[in-house]
Task: structure prediction
Amino acid sequence: MPRDTGTTAKPKPKPKPARRAAAGPGPPPCAALAPRPWRPVRAVPAVLAALAVLAVPAVLGLFPAPRHAAAAGPADPAPAAPAGPGRCETSVPFVSGTEGYHGFRIPAVVRTGRVLVAFAEGRRDSFADHGDIDVVARRSPDGGCTWGPLRVVTDAGRDTAGNPTPAVHPLTGRITLLTCRNPSDSVLPRRVFVQHSDDAGATFSPAREITGQVKPEGWQWYATGPGHALVLRHGPHPGRLLLPANHTYRAPGGETRHGAHSLYSDDGGRTWHLGYLAQPPGDALRLSETALAELPDGRIYAGARNQYGTSPATRAAALLAPGGTALLTPFTPQPALRGPVVQAGLLHLDGPGLLIHSAPADPRRRADLTLRISADQGRTWRDLSDPKRLPPGPAGYSDLVRLGRDTVGVLYETGRAASYETLTFARVPIPAPGSVAGPAAP
Result:
């Protein structure tokens, strides 16, 4: 099923803009697409906004404590860019109605060296989840204060390319990007592709299809991420690429069921395999868009959207064994992470030992993007209040990136009247563990 109910109205076909060559019948299975050059575009004005997050404490209380001490990780990386106090707090890399696109949605952001690369779906004709959709990107050399020209990373002709899920290898800086495709007039069938960049996102390799490696027969809907993926640093498989994903399948009784899984590669993205598989029985949890964060002891925290299951909780979470190929605890509802049915960002900061969750907090609608912080690996959560950077108001999908030891970047859907007006980037300082105000909720 489509990722986002309520935005799947079939768009009216429109001719391609003149600046883009007319599309043919589309690539056959396993066909590679030529890499796209940078396109000069109009500069997008920076928009400053003040951010506020409701300080509402929360608690999970469902995961056991680790049985051994956390493994020591690599030294903290240098800050992403020298953005001094007051230099910039927010910027707007994507504005709907510009660059020949009706709108931009589905953010993902990674950092390679001192360069940030922000990805999005560029939706040509409407905000619908299928139609003429490209994967686009912009780069920032200064920690998200300014952004370079927009580039088309993946163009599937008139069909849909989306769900950008990038990962960065910490030693080589290579960006590995997985995306999904489907016909413009349908959400099925779904196919999976991989490509990479060795120059900090300036160019990308042709997209190569890997559907046969990662999508079993009988699966229907299939989605990577969206949002950033992992390159493992701890445990028995350092350097492993690990990506979050979800799927639907037809149960023996004929009904459509929802599941979550991971993909992994131990050879830099050349070959891919299925990792853990979670297909909860019953209707309490209908797992959808997932995110992963590696904990210092090598375990993986997995979060998922509950796509209108019977549980009142809109979020679910589980723990994966080191390596990400097996469940340690099953997915369970997380009522403390309250909010609407929506995707969420997830990030672990090894230095301060904090797990960070980003999502709208208003349970009635997609509004009030909130960072929630856990100092105990997801057992309890507290809300971070930052009135300068995360203002109340419409908000949707989001992704997180580490900018320094105590600063994160948030790329998220927002706007004044609706959450699809812009993709805005905010630099948010993270307090030390124990300094987040307010008690945890029981």
In short: Confidence is low (pLDDT under 50) at residues 5-78, 81-85, 437-442. The first strand starts at residue 58 and ends at 59. The CA atoms of residues 168 and 175 lie 5 Å apart.
